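hey so u asked for the seq, here:
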Amino acid sequence: MYTEKTKKNNSWNTVAVKTIEQKYGITHIYVRECLRGAPKSILAHKIREDYKRLTNELDSIVQREVAIIAD
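ran it, structure tokens below
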């Protein structure tokens, strides 16, 4: 029986990643590296904060729209 753990693939919100990419003028690869925690810089910290804020806003928009459709 195979019980060894496998590497987890992260699934990032592509809308948030694209928005951050355009805001800072960087590549999506660097954005994803920052979200993984690889670079330890001020910009990387700002990117993580922006990503968290954007995903929270996007989630609330989706929940509102679903509630409207459900009613």
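The chain has one domain: 14-70. The mean pLDDT is 91.
lmk if thats what u needed
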